[in-house]
Amino acid sequence: MNSSVETAPSGSAAPLSGGGVPGRYWVLAVMTMVYAINIADRFVLSTLIEPIKAEFALSDSAVGFLTGVALALFYTTAGLPLGALADRVNRRNMIAWAITIWSMFTALCGLAQNFWMLLLARIGVGVGEAGGTPPSHSILADYFRPSERVVAMSIYAVGVCIGSALGGIGGGLLAEHYGWRAALVIFACGSIPVLILLFTVREPRRGACDPRGEVQREKTNFRDSLRFIRSQRSLVHVLAGGTVATFSGGGLVWWTPAFLGRTHGLSVGEAGVQVGLMNGLGGSIAMIATIFLMLNLAKRDPKWQCHFAAWLTLIISVPAIAAHMVTGLGSATLLLWLFVPFVNVMIGPTLALIQNLSRPDMRGFTVAVLLFTANMANLAVAPQLIGFLSDMLATQIDDPVQSLRYALAFAGLTGIWGAWHFWAAIKWLPRDLERAGSA
Length: 439
Hints:
Layout: E1 5-7, H1 24-47, H2 49-56, H3 60-86, H4 91-111, H5 115-130, H6 133-141, H7 149-156, H8 158-178, H9 180-189, H10 192-198, E2 214-216, H11 222-231, H12 233-264, H13 268-297, H14 303-315, H15 317-323, H16 329-337, H17 347-356, H18 363-394, H19 403-411, H20 415-425, H21 429-436
Antiparallel strand pairs: 1-2
């Protein structure tokens, strides 16, 4: 399997080929924009839940399947082979194809005339988006050294805030003025400028920024990759922690616009603006603060990244639960501001750990594993389970409209479970970093 390797100077910038705009921070900016439109095209549908539900006369369970499960099943299933493909092909070109595909199907979502047409288009969005993230992460790992990846990935994670804000504020306002169909078509067209900028990025050589400065030329297969992942016990715990934290954070935020509308009487636009500001403004401020923190801590023992992710996941679970139990809009909004902006802060340290605990020839696939588990939790399990629980509670309480708030409060308890996995990863972290070549 190791019959041929190519080397690069240890710790050097990734050797490049072809033309384009130079500079690894330009590459980071473009990859962040790609991530932002990925999240925006995904998040906008959650903002439009109520008008879609009304037009097609859907239950909460059906909405959960349409907006979450349909995307997740194909996003995550396609993600594994596409993640493996990212370890074999030109990653920049793969991202370009992914953007084109998911944007086209986002537009088709807006043109759907019934539930089944919307479902099929949503599946297409999932398949397209599955091809964008693994190669993006892999490219960034070849532009930044292991000690720099936590900063790079924290900057990259700002794309979640930007995309969520666009999906929340933009989707809500466009829907109120032009309807939910037009909002989806406009979002699809918004990908074109980013697609153009993507072609200024050069494809780096794999493993060029790792201490060993080498990369496997003969590619590993699924079995080799899975075997290595299973042998990295800290990596398994980080993957599990990231998955559960995504459920307890992103899964709740997915339903927040609907919660604000039903429980507190906000319109689609008002709820979208509220959640968009929490994600965009609040999330960006939290992310920027995290980046400065990463700059100060990046050279320290990597164990601090696990401590950071664990404490953050645990602490924000408190306002996550309380926000859905209080009765006043003001109190709920304040508590949501203490929860929603911090949901994505742990993404940077988590992604950096995953990149550093993986071999260069397996990074695309390992990211795809995280996407599989985390997005199943966020896009499939959370919308469907919370929707099912809400429907079930609606038959058991005096005011059925309030069922969603209780379902969300219960789901917030899972943050405790996610925090435990990050702490459990610490024990094997030094050994596993050495095995991956990132020590």
